[in-house]
Each structure stands twice: as structure tokens, then as C-alpha cells.
Design a protein that fits this description.
Elements: E1 2-9, H1 15-21, H2 25-36, E2 41-49, E3 52-59, H3 62-77, H4 81-84, E4 89-92, H5 94-104, H6 116-131, H7 136-155, H8 158-161, H9 165-177, E5 184-188, H10 192-203, E6 208-213, H11 216-225, E7 229-232, H12 236-240, E8 245-248, H13 259-265, E9 273-277, E10 294-297, H14 299-305, H15 312-363, H16 369-396, H17 403-413, H18 418-423
Parallel strand pairs: 5-6, 5-8, 6-7, 8-9, 9-10
Antiparallel strand pairs: 1-3, 1-4, 2-3
Helix pairs in contact: 1-3, 5-7, 5-15, 6-7, 7-15, 15-16, 15-17
């Protein structure tokens, strides 16, 4: 069994194409279950963010699986296979593990080192667990990826020097509307990204902070945390008329802020307005950029602005940690792969000792109990000593090229029962995702 990742992100596709494959919560659940139902796929989960959609699977076969998983993304985009395939990427086994660790560390993000991806990785694990599509392999892999992401942020300053999408977008508006301090800021949405937008605007000293959402209860809950004012989404036009900056991140499948609404709200306005759209698909009608005094900052603009990100020193520190973690994880996995063979070998030796002792006791029925126990202990020590060196060596060789063949040779030479080997490969006691 091996890990296979098929995905599309801001690194491989333009924003217009990312919008076509964007999924809401129901869509993420659906594609996760569809991926898990593919032939040769035993486990699956999906990381879905504003700039990536990646399907993570545990597979028995590479070629058949990659075709099926790629088809899921192609069908979602609604375009031709020829147009879509050049924008997909594939990572397999060791490469897939390395990629997930980089994603969790924020090293594959649009804003290099951003911290939100860690929560989104945790959400992918949680969703897969709830759907029953994540099993021991992906559970262990994602748990470790979360630990790696936490370690990179604890031991480096990558998340402090690298901007979030929100802070980078607000930096883009400075030349248009000035500093955010004292400004009228409207946030549309009440999810995780909206929470970040509200927190950032509050930290930068927004004068009046308004949270709009279809659910007034959710708007009130978010606004209350940052001394903001909740309002229903129906008040969008009225709030636009007073706003200096609007940040929209709803996760809606259609346009939320139309050009006509913005134009009508600005009939009597003479001050500049910046509209920040960090949703995928986009919330704000791109045509608003043609209106006088209106600036639009979307993911396409941010992609260019975020080039560079953290300094070389922070990046080097994170890459060093990632190298250590990937090496350690792969070594542990290789050693774990020979453990079933070692366990089966020792089980076979124990069975042989027990069978021979039963035969001896059947012939020597009057054997003294103390002598019988000493003989049993001696035979077991002999068996243990004979097996000690081979089992130690096969574990050591697990970290060298050809480790799988050593374990296979051991199983073949001693005629070990494959079912007995498989029976001890199922990890137990996997810790909870939030640990």
C-alpha cells in the first residue's frame, strides 16, 4: 500500500481554473467519498482551501488509481481532459509524504508560511475520520503532518514574518484608501477566513467594524469578539455606501457583491473604496474594478504580491526541519514494514518450541516438573539466540535500499504465513487529531 496525492493549486493553475474546481462543504464530502469508492483505493481524504484542492489516498495500485482520481477533478472543472490535465500534479509514496509535510508547514501556500493551512489540514483529517474514509495509514500520516506543522512554527518565525492573505490584501489597499486605522470596514462572511479578516482589521485599528452574514446569529458571534457590529447580508448596499474597505470571504457558489449594488451604493460617494475578495469562487463581481474610485484586490492580484514572502533564513530553517521529519517518518515506516515479518518469525519459533516440548513430555511422562521447566526455558533461549541476529539485522537493513526484499526473503525462507504477517500490520491506539 502507498500514498497517492492528485491535486491542483495556485502553483499549477490560474485562479480562473481554481474557481471551477472550488468546492463547498457538501462538495468536499462528496468528492472524498467518491475518491474512497474508487477501485484500488482503501483510504481517502481531501484538503480544500481557497487556493488548492488535493485528494490524498492510500492505494494498492498507482496507475489505475491516478486515472480515476484525476477524472474526479477533471469532471469537477467541467472542461476537457486535455485542458485540465496539464494543471494537475501527482505525488506518490515518499514524494506524497514530503508534499503533505510541506503543505502543513505552509511552504506550499500562496502566502509562504501562513498558519491557516494547519487548521485546514486538521479539518481534512477530521472530515475523513467522520466519513469513515480515513484509516490507519492516512490517520498516522496526517497526525504526523500536524506535528510537523506545529514544530516548524514553534522553532522558527516563519508564520510571523510571512503575511496572511488578509494582511497582504490590506497592504495592497494602503495606497488607495490609506491606513486602516479609523476606517469603516465591512467583512462579509462568518467562517474561519472571515474571522481572520475581522481579527486583522480590529488589530489594525478599524474605526467601525461590521460583520455581514446570512445568519445574523453567526455574524453576531463573530462581531462580538472584536467590538464589531453584526448586520444581515441584506444590509450590504447600505453598508457599502459608508465603507472604506470591504473584505468578502463567504464560500458561496455564486457572486455575493454585484457591480450594480456597488455602483448604486457609490452614487453620492466621493471617497475611495477598496474591495478585497479572498473567496474561491470569487464573491465580488470582477467588473467592479471599472467603477470610479473602486479598487479590487482578488486572489489573482495577491498571487503576484505574495511572491517573495519570508526571508531565506526562515525558509532554510523550515526546510531543514522538514528534511529531518521526512527522513525520520520514512525510516520509521520502513522499520514498521518489517515488523510483521519479525513477529511472524518469532511466533513460528515459539510454536516449534511448544510442539517439541509437547512431544518430549508425551514420551517422558514422569519427567520432574523442575527439569521440564528448565528444558523448556533452555530450548526457548536457544531459539531466541538463533533468531536474535537475523531479526536485528533485518530491522537495521530496513533503512537501506532493498529493505522490502530482505523482509520478503525472510518470509520466503521460513515459509511464514502471509495472513499471520498481515494480522500484525494494523496500527492501534492512534491518538486524536487535536492532540
Amino acid at each position: 500500500m502507498s500514498v497517492l496525492v492528485v491535486g491542483i493549486s495556485h502553483n499549477s493553475a490560474p485562479v480562473a481554473l481554481l474557481e471551477r474546481v472550488a468546492l463547498d462543504d457538501d462538495g468536499v464530502q462528496r468528492i472524498t467519498t467518491e475518491a474512497a469508492a474508487c477501485e484500488h483505493v482503501s483510504e481517502a481524504t481531501v484538503i480544500s482551501t481557497c487556493n488548492r484542492l488535493e485528494i490524498y489516498t492510500e492505494v494498492e495500485r498507482f496507475h489505475g488509481s491516478i486515472e480515476q482520481l484525476s477524472r474526479l477533478l477533471v469532471e469537477r472543472a467541467g472542461g476537457s481532459v486535455e485542458a485540465m490535465l496539464p494543471h494537475l500534479y501527482v505525488h506518490y509514496d515518499d514524494g506524497a509524504i514530503s508534499h503533505l509535510f510541506q503543505v502543513a508547514a505552509g511552504m506550499d501556500s500562496m502566502a509562504l508560511g501562513e498558519g491557516q493551512i494547519l487548521g485546514q489540514t486538521r479539518e481534512a483529517l477530521r472530515r475523513g475520520q467522520e466519513l469513515g474514509t480515513v484509516g490507519p495509514a492516512l490517520n498516522l500520516l496526517f497526525q504526523q503532518a500536524l506535528r510537523v506543522g506545529k514544530r516548524t512554527r514553534a522553532e522558527t518565525e516563519i508564520d510571523q514574518v510571512a503575511p496572511t492573505l488578509v494582511s497582504a490584501a490590506l497592504e495592497q489597499t494602503r495606497a488607495h484608501v490609506g491606513e486602516l486605522e479609523g476606517k469603516h470596514v465591512v467583512v462579509v462572511g462568518a467562517g474561519a477566513m472571515a474571522g481572520l479578516a475581522t481579527a486583522t482589521a480590529h488589530r489594525l485599528g478599524a474605526g467601525e467594524l461590521v460583520v455581514l452574514n446570512r445568519s445574523l446569529e453567526r455574524a453576531h458571534r463573530l462581531a462580538a469578539q472584536y467590538d464589531g457590529r453584526p448586520a444581515p447580508l441584506g444590509d450590504l448596499a447600505a453598508e457599502l455606501a459608508k465603507a472604506d474597505v470591504l473584505i468578502s470571504c463567504t464560500g458561496s457558489s455564486g457572486t455575493v457583491v454585484d457591480r450594480e449594488v456597488v455602483a448604486a451604493a457609490r452614487v453620492d460617494a466621493d471617497r475611495p473604496l477598496s474591495l478585497i475578495d479572498i473567496a474561491l469562487p470569487h464573491d465580488v463581481d470582477r467588473a467592479v474594478a471599472d467603477l470610479p474610485g473602486v479598487q479590487l484586490v482578488g486572489l489573482a492580484e495577491l498571487s503576484e504580491a505574495l511572491q517573495g514572502g519570508a526571508t531565506g533564513e526562515e525558509v532554510a530553517d523550515v526546510r531543514r526541519i522538514l528534511g529531518e521529519e521526512v527522513t525520520a517518518f520514512l525510516a520509521a515506516r520502513r522499520q514498521a514494514s518489517v515488523t510483521p515479518t519479525v513477529v511472524a518469525l518469532r511466533s513460528m519459533a515459539t510454536a516449534v518450541v511448544d510442539a517439541e516440548m509437547a512431544r518430549l513430555e508425551g514420551r517422558l511422562t514422569d519427567l520432574d516438573p523442575h527439569v521440564r521447566a528448565e528444558i523448556r526455558q533452555t530450548v526457548r533461549r536457544v531459539a531466541d539466540k538463533l533468531l536474535h541476529e537475523p531479526t536485528v539485522r533485518v530491522k537495521e537493513l530496513a533503512n537501506e535500499q532493498g529493505a522490502v526484499s530482505y523482509a520478503a526473503a525472510l518470509a520466503e525462507l521460513f515459509a511464514l504465513d502471509p495472513e499471520a504477517v498481515d494480522a500484525v500490520t494494523r496500527p492501534v491506539g492512534v491518538e486524536e487529531a487535536g492532540a
